[in-house]
Amino acid sequence: MLKPPIRICLVGFLLDFAVMIGLTAMPFYVFNHLGGGAAMSGSFGAVQASAYAVTCILAAGLVSRTHNGLTLALMGMLVFTICFSTIPLSKSVLLCGGITVFSFVGMGLIWPALHSWVGAEPDPALRAKYMSWFNLSWSFGFAVSPLFAGPLYDLDYRLPFAVLFVLGMACVLILRTMPHEKTYFAEATPEMMDARAGHDRASEAHLHAAWCATFAANALIGVTRCVYPKRVDDLVAAGQLQLFLEDIPAEFLRHAAATKFSWLAGALALSTAITFIVLGKTSFWRHRFQVLFALQALSAAAFWALGTTRSLAVMMCCFVIVGVTLGVAFFSSAYYSLANPEHKHRRASINEGAVGLGGFVGSILFGYAVQQWGVALPFRLTPLFIALAVALQWALLRRGRNIASKMALDTDEPPANAVSR
Hints:
This protein has helices spanning 4-33, 38-58, 60-65, 69-84, 93-118, 124-155, 159-175, 181-184, 190-195, 197-226, 228-237, 257-281, 290-306, 312-337, 344-373, 376-380, 382-410, 416-419. The chain is mostly helical. α13 runs antiparallel to α14.
């Protein structure tokens, strides 16, 4: 049998393959079978994200008090799989909304427990290695899945949800074989805790700012998943989607909008996966927040371009930039959240809550803004949102460093900002 770290990576891959199949198909199901537009699709994304965020935050203490957190993951997997796969059975907006709420309540029980299990490795270098494998696995599932979801939906709208059910049940079977984290991982020795004290203090200093960056990145991701499909759908329907900047679009761009969007979603997720590989093999990003500041500025520029472009190639480049930003923001905040073994369960839940809350804000605000004012204006106002988010992150980083420096002085250790260099 495969070793437990490989098995949990397999769960991450299969689960997010299933999730992204559903998320890619869902907007087009809203457009084609529920009679909705960008606002309704954004509302569905917001409902999903808010249910996920609230569950993660409320379950933060529950996960840490549970004898085996993977038991919660198993329960959540069953709820998500059974609920989300039944969406095509209903043509009622309210019923579909209720189903998505229950689906992502289940999802909120899964991910904090999985991340916490991976983060049980006491050695920081090995923990980063295992995190890289795990994050690469689920993000690769995100990257590959849309390439199947779009064509499956265009073939029959029920097929993506049927595949989701099969993959979810496979995850249930694998989770039943996983050992308890304390059985598999060794306890950190006092010598190890002393050796990594400065590293852990620097992680504490960056934690809250990283959570804020994860929130901002996932707000942008929520827009790309739930709102931007309407832009692609409209351009394909009008025969205006271009490959580059040609005057007469190619014939293959005039149909199968779900497939065209799946290329963008796949590129975004693939760029995130590649980012995880780089971060798992390097340390330059640790406790250096200027990397995230620069990437968020690039994402703001990408959204400015997405508001007006009709070029699929330009869209692809913009989605890649947003995917890289998500990769660095999420990996950093997850790494810092798992640094303190005493609080890793709760902080993994809060980090996932930031993911869901960001998705909620991006989906609901952009969905209604696009419905009201069209695509160009909301996307061109995105740099303002990013600027406010970066200002808040800077304030949180300064506060975290000041607190960490005072604590270091009390223990005669180097301050956090010195450790980060």
